Amino acid sequence: MRDAKRFIIAFTYLSIVVALGLFVYFTFIKAPETCGDGKKNQNETGIDCGGVCTNVCEENVVGEALEIQEVAFVSGGVGVYDVLSKVYNPNDEIGALSFQYVFILKDASGNVLAEKSGTSFILPQETKSLMELNIPLTGVPATVTFTASNAEWKRFSGYQDKPQINIYQRRYDQISSGAGFGEAYGLVSNESPYDFRSLSVKVILRDEAGKLLAVNMTEMRSVKANEERDFRLLWPAAFPGTVATVEMEADADIYNSDNFMQQHLPGGKFQEFSK
Prior knowledge:
- The protein is mainly β.
- It has one helix at 2-29, and strands spanning 67-77, 80-88, 94-106, 112-122, 127-136, 143-157, 165-174, 182-190, 194-206, 212-223, 228-235, 245-251, 260-263, 272-273.
- It is 10% helix and 49% strand.
- Strands 4-3-6-14 form a four-stranded antiparallel beta sheet, with no helix packed on it.
């Protein structure tokens, strides 16, 4: 009986000491929980965001993988080759702010002759042509592979505002006299209300069966809103086959805010990412 009383007294004393210690710790020692303490606490849904915090948590966007529709190579002249890949983004509202890609050329024995890497971007539901030109090789390529990786996905709002850049008066002519073998012409029309620091123009030539014959590309600088500008691309060396189809693409990186020189509409941004 006496031992039970001692236990109760000791337990009560210990409880008081622990409660007092917790009171002192949480009142005077422990740092208060805030929306800038680098921790997920309070009722936050992420670290220092959501819940009582005014900061909106950035959405962890995951898109379906890019689809590779075509990979091919052609001779670009003596000892150099050009490579092409067609990439499709199957996502309805998600684009890739950036992604990395690699072309690998191999000979008939499977030996790697060259690797060419780069970065690009892609809009929702867009099919994009990626090409690398004038790759020097010491051997003869038999195959080419293409991989795309490390996509940085973003949900795209204002998708209806994607830039309207069209190419008119398209044509290809084989040069009958003078320097060069063939040349392609076109008129680029920036029909969006934005001035772009840089636009890329890509040209793909195919025969009647759709086989790739040649590729080429150029870059235009400081293309203003509603401006029309013509271009001419030259193939100095002959390539086999007869050109039946001429594909042309004009592209502007709208994910890069530095690519916008001026907006000719009041208020708002060209596009925004929802977070």
